């Protein structure tokens, strides 16, 4: 059966095609002048440029972190172009009809037809193609509810006071090496503001796609949910095949003010590289949210792509009675490496957090869970529950768990459960003896393993996630 | 139906089946008994195609098809069902989901329309009832947290739903009390329709009080050394396998 695994795992990446759209692209390299040019291209105010420059100077002083359980050749930051935008987007389309048909075709190949999405799920799509947001739909409907959902570059122009107040408030410029780099050079991303007491009338969704060769992708997302508001945000991404490694260093900041509720779901399917691990995306992402009193932030992620993943969506539970949740499925195969998990920082009283992490390793991949649960001195009555399960497929992959627990409050309760299991020959044999083929059997076993996380995903995303796992696992029998 | 001709099979280079012949006609029930290590369970695994069980010589056909040439799932779709001695757990996958996929995989193979959720549920509920399992077993993970007896009954429930043409029961009586044994036997007997055939592998004669075999075979050292009718089982019950003499001692060693 291990031959079957090999075969299945050497399968070509389904989204691996490259579309030819002319682009405006900066020459490779990074210095102050590049940052000034990015800022000028975006027509940014002076404060934004200064903020970027400060980030850049901090970044110069910082060292690339090497503590993660991943191994990859050093990134040459001077060999990357820091800006690229599809050329035909210069005169900003107002609707899908004005969008480059070739671009729309890319989405269609990926099975995410925007036209259908508009009509279907009532999802507003802010599609990001490389670094510039090209399509924003449902703007008006959201406008009626007072919801702001726009590219962050637009928000910097239109809502400077909001952006200025919150950008960097959760992930400071100097937070870490990749966050500092992002702060200096981010080119686009989404901005969301939900006013007081408003329940966002639809799920907000952004599809990311990295398309231009050799360009770094530095998204910056900022979501502010004002008091008592609710929002569910979906992020999904996939990228075409290429040879050069691509760096992706995004920053996502969530602010949940008193009694607000933010649900952030991700399906990530970037190119993982070929069977030798060549050419995949490096995904070094900083995602963090802050909860004020009685607020709740819930992260759900399904990670199947990228060559190297370094990602810890976290919650700072600052307010009393606030709630943080992290539900994760991370699947690695081939030579993929993932070091992912979360941080739950309990500062307020009676704060609660739940962590459910499901790691699946196949092929020659390595999958690590790294989580920190920190109970601060004032977190009276705080509780955490962590469940961390690993599933191995085949005998050449690895699963690792690095839980860190720090409690400075005697009344806080922290629970950690962990299991490691294998898709066993017995399980496969049972399923096959009942007439199921090996692929179906593996996908069923893995889906069963992930059930607790999938049920947290919004409906349409759950279907997509199930499909994604099935495609990723095709034939991976062991 | 099933025809086994001079079968030789090994596990990890150790030959376990050493020239086995067996002919099973439609509607027949064959019991296979024998001392520990005789190759009883191995026979079921070899016929169903489990990985690691190598056929070195001989042939086996089911309804005229060369079994040994087929993948595990293809054999199942051709109507071969193996009730496991120790069914494994599949956490998080509900019995219902699992069985519906199985039933529909078999139906697809036969060129039939898949069952709708409602049609399947009706059948599944009836099957559950037949083996005395509460309906919530359909919602639970496959064998997850089931007791030994529940697992065995769950196997019979699957057999009822999948409607195979040949059922191999691998020590389905082991670890069962008398009541559970009765339930398992009733489930099996309910499926005897004059067409469906059974190979009942057992260590004890007890099960054969409930499932009446047409033939009893004694397997020792990888071969059928004696065949007879139901009375042969009673003989074994009375005097053990000592009559096997040398072959028994070798197998038991």
From TrEMBL, chain A:
GO terms for biological process: iron-sulfur cluster assembly. It comes from the Bacteria. InterPro entries: Fe-S_cluster_assembly_SufBD (IPR055346), SUF_FeS_clus_asmbl_SufB (IPR010231), SUF_FeS_clus_asmbl_SufBD_core (IPR000825), SUF_FeS_clus_asmbl_SufBD_sf (IPR037284), SufBD_N (IPR045595). Residues 208-449 form the SUF system FeS cluster assembly SufBD core domain. Residues 142-200 form the SUF system FeS cluster assembly SufBD N-terminal domain. It holds the Pfam family SUFBD_core. PANTHER family: FES CLUSTER ASSEMBLY PROTEIN SUF, UPF0051 PROTEIN ABCI8, CHLOROPLASTIC-RELATED. Belongs to the iron-sulfur cluster assembly SufBD family. This is Fe-S cluster assembly protein SufB. It comes from Alteromonas alba.
From TrEMBL, chain B:
Belongs to the ABC transporter superfamily. Ycf16 family. This is Fe-S cluster assembly ATPase SufC. InterPro entries: AAA+_ATPase (IPR003593), ABC_transporter-like_ATP-bd (IPR003439), FeS-cluster_ATPase_SufC (IPR010230), P-loop_NTPase (IPR027417). SMART domains: AAA. Residues 2-246 form the ABC transporter domain. NCBIfam families: sufC. The gene is sufC. It comes from the Bacteria. It comes from Alteromonas oceani. Keywords: ATP-binding, Nucleotide-binding.
């Amino acid at each position: 059966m291990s031959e079957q695994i090999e075969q299945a795992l050497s399968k070509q990446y389904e989204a691996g095609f490259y579309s030819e759209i002319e682009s405006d692209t900066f020459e490779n390299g990074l210095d102050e002048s590049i940052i000034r040019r990015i800022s000028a291209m975006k027509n940014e105010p002076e404060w934004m440029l200064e903020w970027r420059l400060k980030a850049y100077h901090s970044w110069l002083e910082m060292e690339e972190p090497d503590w993660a359980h991943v191994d990859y050749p050093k990134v040459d930051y001077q060999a990357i172009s820091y800006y690229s935008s599809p050329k035909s987007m210069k005169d900003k389309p107002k609707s899908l009809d004005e969008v480059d048909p070739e671009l729309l075709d890319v989405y269609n190949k990926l099975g995410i037809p925007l036209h259908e999405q508009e009509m279907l799920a009532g999802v507003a799509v802010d599609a990001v193609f490389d670094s510039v947001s090209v399509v924003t739909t449902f703007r008006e409907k959201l406008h009626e509810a007072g919801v702001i959902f726009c590219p962050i570059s637009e928000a910097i122009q239109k809502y400077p006071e909001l952006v200025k107040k919150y950008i960097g408030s959760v992930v400071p410029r100097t937070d870490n090496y990749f966050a500092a780099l992002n702060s200096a050079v981010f080119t686009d991303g989404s901005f969301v503001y939900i006013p007081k007491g408003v329940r966002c009338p639809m799920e907000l969704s952004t599809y990311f796609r990295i398309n231009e060769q050799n360009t770094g992708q530095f998204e910056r997302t900022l979501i502010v949910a004002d008091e008592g508001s609710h929002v569910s945000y979906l992020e999904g991404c996939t990228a075409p095949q290429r040879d050069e490694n691509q760096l992706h260093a995004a920053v996502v900041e969530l602010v949940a003010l008193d009694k607000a509720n933010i649900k952030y779901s991700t399906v990530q399917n970037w190119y993982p590289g070929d069977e030798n691990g060549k050419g995949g995306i490096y995904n070094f992402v900083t995602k963090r949210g802050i909860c004020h009193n009685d607020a709740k932030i819930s992260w759900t992620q399904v990670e199947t792509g990228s060559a190297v993943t370094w990602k810890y969506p976290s919650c700072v539970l600052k307010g009393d009675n606030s709630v943080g949740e992290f539900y994760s499925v991370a699947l690695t195969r081939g030579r993929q490496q993932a070091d992912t998990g979360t941080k739950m920082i309990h500062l307020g009283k009676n704060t609660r957090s739940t962590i459910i992490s499901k790691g699946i390793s196949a092929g020659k991949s390595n999958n690590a869970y790294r989580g920190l649960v920190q109970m601060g001195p004032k977190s009276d009555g705080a509780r955490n529950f962590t469940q961390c399960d690993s599933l191995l497929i085949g005998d050449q992959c690895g699963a690792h768990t690095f839980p860190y627990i720090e409690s400075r409050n005697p009344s806080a309760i922290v629970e950690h459960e962990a299991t490691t299991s294998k898709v066993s020959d017995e399980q496969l044999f049972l399923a096959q003896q009942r007439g199921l083929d090996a692929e179906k059997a593996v996908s069923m076993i893995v889906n069963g393993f992930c059930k607790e996380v999938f049920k947290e995903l919004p409906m349409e995303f759950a279907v997509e996630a199930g499909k994604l796992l099935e495609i990723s696992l095709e034939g991976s029998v062991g | 139906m099933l025809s086994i001709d001079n079968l030789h099979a090994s596990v990890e280079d150790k030959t376990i089946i050493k020239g086995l012949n067996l002919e099973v006609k439609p509607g027949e029930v064959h019991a296979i008994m024998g001392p520990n290590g005789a190759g009883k369970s191995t026979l079921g695994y070899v016929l169903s195609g489990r990985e690691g069980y190598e056929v070195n010589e001989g042939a086996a056909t089911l309804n005229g098809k060369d079994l040994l040439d087929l993948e595990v799932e293809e054999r199942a779709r051709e109507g071969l069902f193996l009730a496991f001695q120790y069914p494994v757990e599949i956490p998080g996958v509900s019995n219902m989901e699992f069985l519906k996929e199985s039933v529909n995989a078999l139906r697809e193979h036969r060129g039939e329309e898949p069952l709708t959720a409602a049609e399947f549920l009706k059948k599944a509920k009836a099957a559950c009832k037949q083996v005395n399992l509460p309906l919530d077993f359909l919602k639970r993970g496959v064998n997850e947290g089931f007791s030994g007896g529940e697992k065995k009954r769950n196997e019979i429930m699957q057999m009822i739903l999948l409607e195979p043409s040949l059922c191999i029961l691998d020590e389905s009586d082991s670890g069962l009390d008398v009541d559970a044994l009765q339930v398992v036997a009733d489930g099996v007997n309910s499926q005897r329709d004059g067409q469906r055939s059974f190979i009942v592998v057992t260590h004890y004669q007890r099960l054969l009080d409930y499932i009446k075999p047409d033939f009893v075979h004694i397997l020792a050292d990888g071969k059928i050394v004696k065949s007879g009718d139901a009375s042969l089982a009673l003989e074994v019950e009375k005097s053990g396998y000592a009559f096997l003499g040398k072959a028994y001692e070798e197998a038991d060693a």
